[in-house]
Amino acid sequence: xxxxxxxxxxxxxxxxxxxxxxxxxxxxxxxxxxxxxxxxxxxxxxxxxxxxxxxxxxxxxxxxxxxxxxxxxxxxxxxxxxxxxxxxxxxxxxxxxxxxxxxxxxxxxxxxxxxxxxxxxxxxxxxxxxxxxxxxxxxxxxxxxxxxxxxxxxxxxxxxxxxxxxxxxxxxxxxxxxxxxxxxxxxxxxxxxxxxxxxxxxxxxxxxxxxxxxxxxxxxxxxxxxxxxxxxxxxxxxxxxxxxxxxxxxxxxxxxxxxxxxxxxxxxxxxxxxxxxxxxxxxxxxxxxxxxxxxxxxxxxxxxxxxxxxxxxxxxxxxxxxxxxxxxxxxxxxxxxxxxxxxxxxxxxxxxxxxxxxxxxxxxxxxxxxxxxxxxxxxxxxxxxxxxxxxxxxxxxxxxxxxxxxxxxxxxxxxxxxxxxxxxxxxxxxxxxxxxxxxxxxxxxxxxxxxxxxxxxxxxxxxxxxxxxxxxxxxxxxxxxxxxxxxx
Length: 488
Ligand code: GAP
What we know:
By secondary structure, this protein is of the alpha+beta class. The protein has 3 domains: about 10-70 and about 170-300 and about 350-365, BirA Bifunctional Protein, domain 2; about 85-150, no CATH class; about 395-485, 3-Layer(aba) Sandwich (Rossmann fold). The chain has helices at about 10-15, 40-60, 75-80, 80-85, 170-175, 180-185, 230-250, 300-310, 310-315, 360-370, 405-420, 430-440, 450-455, 475-485; strands at about 20-25, 35, 65, 85-90, 100, 105, 130, 145-150, 150-155, 165, 190-200, 215-225, 255-260, 270-280, 285-295, 340, 345-350, 350-360, 370-375, 380-385, 395-400, 425, 445-450, 460-465, 470-475. The strands form 8 sheets. Strands 3-11-12-18-15-14-13 form a 7-stranded mixed beta sheet. A hairpin with a 7-residue loop joins strand 14 and strand 15 (about 285-295). It starts with 7 loop residues before the first helix and ends with a helix. Bound molecules: glycyl-adenosine-5'-phosphate. Glycyl-adenosine-5'-phosphate (GAP) binds next to strand 12, strand 15, strand 18 and helix 10.
């Protein structure tokens, strides 16, 4: 009987032991909430990103890709609202001085919520029943205050042209800032979407649970532009598409659900938002956000039109983004530079935007958690990661049964043949049973073993990770069979 994951600790130790994920700067004692992906982890996360890209760009006629720089003109973040509003409301414990997100404080009335305030929440919250997570004192907090989440840095060598810039807190704004460029350089027409994968940075107040919430992370975001009035339909479309993607890659149905946002929880730009949640083995309620699908309306493009007209003011302020305020929107805003002329509808409008925004690291964690199983096999414990073959870091392990009688040479030849098609691992060390276990733990779906019979009839054993069944396969048919089984 297989056991699934009970706590994250087992997974964290497997990830370190097998080279999936390490703490950043480990040799210096670590850097809080930053993580590095090791040899297996980098393959896994890349497979997650590639599967996403294939599904949302390669397989669709109405999507294109983009890769923006992380540093952008600081006015981008003024227009988007991040400079003024992207903050968490925090309260400081008067006893131990620890700052905690107000929406993460727990009291008698129950669990935390996990969304960012985006500066919208009331600062007059009653914290009398809340408990400090650090020292356990109840109700001894300062008044809540906003804590800005964007990392800042300085750009430029000369005093006169240097300025404060930000590390992007989402990849989305790079897409809005390139909407016109993409329209002008391709023949694509609304409705269409732009996809981007890349790093984002947030100076999170509370980080959490391994790679779940970190200060540097990767996002996989889509901004899908559509005619106002068709936005609700497209929102439904993306909800279904994105849920199906997780299911198709093997996440169990019972561990996924939609959670619609309540109206007081919506970010200032959103008309509606639903989260895809996964049942993680931590926290109070277990169910945690994997991905958000928001209806951002025409908010961002309209804000950038205002921002574009405010650049002179920004120069006049001495490049002081905080002090620059955006000019008012002109009456004919719907004809502005980020509008679109719809040939079919014979009208000009600013498109509405549906935004499915997923975390690559958070997704990777969900795939790891869901794949993890512990089993008893003939009195021995086996750890196995039952990854979908598309996500498995290594697709095929190739072994000689023993290091003699020409077996290593034959196995090497097979390995060299197969590795041109998928990532393979050659291993001739220790007993073959142990080699199988190591590949189970790495999530490798198939292992091929060359043995004494191979020299006689040109067959090998093909071992299945999940059923542990071994079948004999002719070497001539091996590649075709594996390509079929792995669907690649
Ligand atoms: N552009 C919209 C946006 O950024 P979000 O809900 O703040 O929305 C989207 O982030 C996704 O990015 C989340 O669902 C999550 O998967 C991931 N994410 C956000 N903050 C993260 C963090 N600190 N660490 C890891 N992943 C994070």
